[in-house]
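Quick one, C-alpha cells below:
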C-alpha cells in the first residue's frame, strides 16, 4: 500500500490542474492557497518522524501537504516523512536513522539506535546525522527523547577533581555545569577520570584550592589568607583574576567579589 500510494503521489504531483468544479481535474493550475486548511502546520512534532496530522516546520509542512493533503488531514505517516526528506532541504537528514550507537551518549558515527529519537535530534541538528553523534547531539537527546535519563542537576556528589564512578556530577555547581557542558556523560553516566581531568583543566578555582580561601595551603584559613583575598578582590565582573588568585573565586565566574567573600572561611 505504501508503494502504491507513493507512486500515485509522484504520478500526479507534476501536473495538478483544476477547473471550476473539480480542483484536481484538468483545466488550470490548482490554486494551492485554497487546496486544504493549514491549521495543522507550524505546531506539533517534527516533520521527520511519524505522528498525527501536520508538523512543526510550517514551510516544509505546507510543501508536503500540497503534494499529499492527507498528511495535514489524517496522519503524518511514512509517506509524509519520505516527502519531507525529499522536498524540505536539509530539514530531514534522518534517512540514516536508526543507526548504531546509544542516542543518549556521544559516539563517532552519525545517527543513533532508536529511530524516533534519532529523527527528532537530527531534525533539530542535521550534523548529528551527517557527521558524528556529538556531545551536543547527546544533550539534545536528553531533552527530546523519553528513553534518555534526565541530566543530573549540579551540584552532585563527590569532588570535581577526582573520579567517583559510582555517582554523577560533582560538589561545586559552576565546575559541575562547565564540565557537563563539555561532556554530558559526566552528568548522565559517571564522574570518571576523564571528567576529573576536565575539571582540573577548566576549574582552577576548585582543583588548585583544596580548601577554599586557603591561599598558602596550610589546611587552615586564617588572617594571612584573608589578606591574600583582599589583594585578589576585583569586584563583580572585575576579572580576569591575577595569577595565584584561584582560591578567591568560589563560584568560578573569573572574579573575586562579595559573593565569593560570603563563602570565605573554613
Amino acid at each position: 500500500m505504501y508503494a502504491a500510494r507513493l507512486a500515485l503521489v509522484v504520478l500526479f504531483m507534476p501536473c495538478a490542474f483544476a477547473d471550476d468544479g473539480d480542483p484536481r481535474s484538468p483545466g488550470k493550475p490548482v490554486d494551492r492557497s485554497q487546496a486544504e486548511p493549514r491549521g495543522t502546520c507550524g505546531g506539533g512534532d517534527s516533520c521527520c518522524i511519524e505522528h498525527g496530522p501536520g508538523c512543526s516546520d510550517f514551510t516544509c509542512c505546507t510543501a508536503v501537504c500540497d503534494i499529499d493533503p492527507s498528511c495535514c488531514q489524517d496522519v503524518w505517516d511514512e509517506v509524509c516523512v519520505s516527502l519531507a526528506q525529499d522536498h524540505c532541504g536539509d530539514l530531514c537528514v534522518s534517512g540514516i536513522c536508526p543507526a548504531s550507537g546509544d542516542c543518549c551518549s556521544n559516539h563517532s558515527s552519525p545517527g543513533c539506535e532508536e529511530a524516533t529519537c534519532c529523527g527528532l535530534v537530527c531534525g533539530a541538528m542535521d550534523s548529528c546525522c551527517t557527521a558524528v553523534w556529538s556531545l551536543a547531539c547527546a544533550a539534545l537527546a536528553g531533552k527530546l527523547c523519553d528513553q534518555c535519563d534526565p541530566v543530573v542537576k549540579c551540584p552532585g556528589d563527590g569532588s570535581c577533581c577526582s573520579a567517583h564512578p559510582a555517582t554523577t556530577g560533582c560538589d561545586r555547581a559552576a565546575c559541575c555545569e562547565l564540565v557537563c557542558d563539555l561532556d554530558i556523560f559526566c552528568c548522565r553516566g559517571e564522574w570518571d577520570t576523564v571528567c576529573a581531568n576536565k575539571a582540573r583543566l577548566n576549574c582552577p578555582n576548585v582543583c588548585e584550592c583544596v580548601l577554599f580561601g586557603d591561599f598558602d595551603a596550610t589546611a587552615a584559613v586564617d588572617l594571612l589568607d584573608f589578606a591574600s583575598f583582599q589583594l585578589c578582590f576585583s569586584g563583580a565582573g572585575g576579572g580576569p583574576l591575577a595569577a595565584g588568585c584561584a582560591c578567591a573565586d568560589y563560584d568560578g565566574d573569573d572574579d573575586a567579589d562579595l559573593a565569593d567573600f560570603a563563602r570565605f572561611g573554613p
